[in-house]
Specification:
The complex is a heterodimer of chains A (563) and B (195). In chain A, 64% of the residues lie in helices and 2% in strands. With 563 residues, chain A is mainly α. Chain A folds into 2 domains: 252 residues, no CATH class; 181 residues, no CATH class. In chain A, the strands form 2 sheets. Chain A has a two-stranded antiparallel sheet. In chain A, strands 3-4 form a two-stranded antiparallel ribbon. In chain A, helix 6 packs across helix 7 and helix 14 runs antiparallel to helix 17. Chain B folds into 2 domains: 36 residues; 154 residues, no CATH class. Chain B is 48% helix and 8% strand. Chain B is built from 7 helices and 5 strands; from the N terminus they run ααββααβααββα. In chain B, strands 3-5-4 form a 3-stranded antiparallel beta sheet. In chain B, strands 1-2 form a two-stranded antiparallel ribbon. Classes of the chains: A mainly alpha (563), B mainly alpha (195). At the A-B interface, helix 1, helix 2, helix 3, helix 6 and helix 7 of A face helix 1, strand 2, helix 4, strand 3 and helix 7 of B.
């Protein structure tokens, strides 16, 4: 790693830390209905929305009504996207003449986009028409992200609430997240990306005559608008097959830096929003610090592993599956950010990383997508671990566990455990099915432990709602389309429902005054405890499985063993 | 319940119109007006014919041209001319015997094409396939290694070709981003232009 590359990494973290309070403070104003610089332009549209929808801004919901609204909205989006793919061949805006999508693939893709996973079993430019990409996928890029933001805001209201059992109105939060946060940021980012060379047109592919006299079909399409939201919404579904490694999606080092920043921007800023809404910015920064430390440690291991020469290919530092304009450092930084943030985009191929670096990417996902995590989803996932930490700390020192002045009791802990166990069980059980059936094994691209990692990564990516791929696996089979689809539903609603239930029960609790017996949840000690709980839970659950995949493969590689 | 469904359906329709129709069209409109060259794929024309995109690599084994990085998607599709409409990587892992064989074969091919001694180190970007299969760039070292071959095939002075390579080597963007790299298509077209 050169000095210049070190500067690039420092620059990235500096920008992220600087943007967190700016955007976080803005979002806090948006979700409290306060005036912002954009209110003047957007309020008329916002109120027109409410009129048509028959929604009143002060019509608050309890946790069951809020969860019901989230589920209803997700199911409608799913039904629309599923049918749209089944009939796209007969619909307009299809200059490449692509056919209808088969049902298993359509199920997988529709699930993938409504759950903010954006796993892609298909090749973008050769499967889905411009119409499907625009009014199908791009819409879900916005609204699945907005749903995540809405849920975490509702959870925050529940934890902070001083006035009864209500969590706010889902429809209002959904509209505000889309209009005030995601749309303006996306439009601005899309235009900068176009200036760097990301394509944005409605043209059919252009036939170029290459230097050697052959025909090269150059794809077109409305890519920049989709790429901006795929990063900001931690979606990650690419316009083209190789996602952000494609020069039309990510043409320059500057486009790479801006996309990287967009991936972590909203998840990081939400920690600050959280601090404002619970009335203590320190609570927000505490969570930010835990996320940042876990991220930096993982990144360091990945960089170290990736700069290690691979003895199997003659002791060379590997550039397989990496683009030259990014180099190793910016490829690995991307790999760390996208797996931490449940953004499935790739600018380099994780499958070709060293086993240790690929293993950390996998670990980032199986820890529950809480190191920044998906927009909204990362923070509400992290809050579950915060409650577990409070509970464990209480057990250790014999104090009654409290968070933000409210008692944490058996009911909340049961829900928290459920939210941790459901996605983990999906990953491990489905991986077990995958590695013991012909339908699962026949899709591998690599033999040996690498093949095991391919399968486990696919289910982790689904249940973590990440969407990143250890792309060697041929996942476009009925077996994988179905099982990965199911793991995505479990990973989304197996967490959203319990966490809203926790918020609902915490909302109604009395706030006890602070006393000497109160365990502070905004101290460096708490950051350490939180990190320890996350790592212990993750290690206990996944260490045996990781040992069969990346860990054993790293040792085999260092002993020059190939398959 | 009906209230829920009405809100859900109308919210979905309105948000689809705004984010799925208005937003991409607005972006397309702005993009086409402000940055038409970039928005349409950075296409390069010679005598009215599109010869490629400044952002997309090509395939050649002509000794008179600089070569791009290896492309997994080209290899998978048997080097068919339509291959580059799709993008792809090998996804071979560290312990892949296939990858080790490919790297050895590529090293051998590059050494023989450029008359290099068997122990000359070769820049890794020429040995490993890119992520997209379409990487438009090679490293300055990978270009330097090919200068003698290209100069000989074109009957040019080595210094002339070296000067062109230097001219088409891009420095890190905004001084700190990325690393130095050579755009192979622009370099090859410049070579054609001087003859």
């Amino acid at each position: 790693m050169s000095g210049l590359e070190f500067v690039q990494v420092v620059l990235f973290f500096g920008l992220l830390i600087a943007c967190t309070p700016l955007l976080g403070g803005y979002m806090a104003r948006v979700f409290q209905g306060q005036r912002t610089p954009l209110t003047f332009a957007l309020r008329p549209a916002e109120h027109a929305f409410y009129r048509v929808m028959g929604v009143k801004t002060d019509d608050e919901q309890d946790w069951k009504a809020y969860a019901g609204a989230v589920i209803a909205f997700t199911l409608i989006g799913f039904a629309f996207l599923f049918v749209l793919q089944l009939i796209q061949g007969a619909l307009p805006l299809n200059p490449a003449g692509l056919g209808n999508v088969e049902p298993f693939l359509a199920f997988n893709t529709a699930t993938s986009f409504v759950t903010n996973t954006n796993w892609q079993s298909y090749g973008g430019e050769t499967t889905l028409s411009y119409l499907t990409q625009s009014i199908g996928l791009a819409v879900q890029n916005f609204v699945s992200a907005a749903t995540g933001i809405a849920v975490v805001i509702a959870v925050t209201r529940g934890l902070a609430g001083r006035t009864g059992k209500l969590l706010g109105n889902f429809w209002v939060d959904l509209v505000r997240a889309t209009l005030y946060v995601l749309l303006p940021l996306s439009l601005a980012l899309a235009l900068v990306l176009i200036s760097q060379g990301v394509v944005q047109n409605l043209n059919a592919p252009v036939a170029a005559v290459t230097l050697s006299g052959e025909t090269q079909m150059l794809p077109g399409g409305p890519a920049a608008s989709q790429i901006a939201i795929k990063q900001l919404g931690t979606n990650g579904g690419g316009f083209f097959n190789v996602n952000s490694a494609h020069p039309f999606e990510n043409p320059t080092p500057l486009s790479n830096l801006l996309q990287l920043l967009s991936i972590l921007l909203i998840p990081a800023a939400l920690t600050y929003t959280y601090g404002v809404l619970v009335g203590s910015r320190r609570q927000g920064w505490t969570i930010f610090a835990a996320m940042l430390i876990l991220f930096v440690v993982g990144l360091s291991v990945m960089l170290l592993a990736e700069y290690t020469p691979n003895p199997v290919v003659g002791g060379l530092v590997s550039l397989e599956g990496k683009e030259l304009r990014f180099g190793i450092t910016n490829s690995v930084l991307w790999g760390a950010a996208t797996t931490a943030a449940s953004n499935g985009s790739v600018n380099s191929m994780i499958s070709s990383y060293s086993p240790a670096a690929g293993g950390i990417a996998l670990l980032n996902i199986v820890l529950g997508e809480i190191i920044f995590g998906g927009v909204g989803a990362g923070l509400y996932g992290m809050l579950i671990f915060v409650l577990l930490t409070v509970f464990l700390a209480g057990l250790m020192v014999g104090r009654s566990p409290e968070y933000l002045g409210k008692k944490v009791e058996a009911g909340e802990i049961k829900m928290a455990i459920m939210a941790v166990l459901l996605p983990s069980a999906a990953i491990l059980l489905f991986t077990a099915i995958g590695v013991t059936t012909e339908a699962g094994l026949s899709s591998r691209a690599n033999a040996g432990p690498h093949g095991f990692t391919e399968i486990m990564y696919a289910f982790a990516s689904g249940a973590g709602n990440n969407g990143s791929a250890f792309a060697g696996l041929n996942a476009n089979t009925p077996f994988y389309n179905l099982l990965i689809g199911i793991s995505m539903w479990i990973g989304r609603f197996g967490v959203i429902v319990p966490v809203l239930a926790i918020a609902g029960s915490m909302a109604g609790k009395r706030v006890a005054p602070q006393s000497v017996g109160t365990f502070p949840t905004d101290s460096p000690l708490f950051v350490l405890l939180l990190i320890a709980v996350i790592l212990i839970v993750g290690a206990l659950t996944f260490f045996p499985a990781l040992a069969l995949g990346p860990i054993v493969e790293q040792f085999l590689a260092l002993n020059v063993r190939a398959f | 319940m009906t209230k829920h469904i009405r809100a859900a359906v109308t919210a979905f329709v309105l948000l689809t119109i705004i984010t799925g129709v208005i937003y991409p069209l607005l972006t397309t409109g702005f993009g086409q007006v402000l940055f038409p060259y970039q928005a349409n794929g950075s296409l390069i024309e010679r005598d009215g014919v599109v010869v490629g995109s400044a952002l997309i690599g090509q395939i050649t084994d002509d000794p008179a041209y600089f070569w791009w990085r290896p492309s997994a998607v080209n290899a998978m599709q048997g080097g068919s001319p339509e291959a580059l409409i799709s993008s792809g990587a090998s996804n071979q892992g560290w312990t892949s015997a296939t990858l080790a064989e490919q790297v050895a074969a590529r090293a051998e091919a590059i050494r023989s094409a450029n008359n290099l001694a068997a122990d000359t180190p070769i820049p890794p970007d020429l040995l490993f396939a890119s992520a997209s299969g379409l990487d438009p760039h090679i490293s300055p070292e990978a270009a330097a290694l090919q200068v003698a071959r290209v100069a000989e095939a074109r009957d040019l002075e080595v210094s002339q070709v070296e000067a062109l390579v230097a001219q088409y080597t891009e420095a890190p963007q905004l001084l700190v981003l990325g690393q130095p790299r050579v755009n192979v298509l622009l370099l090859n077209l410049a070579l054609d232009d001087i003859q």
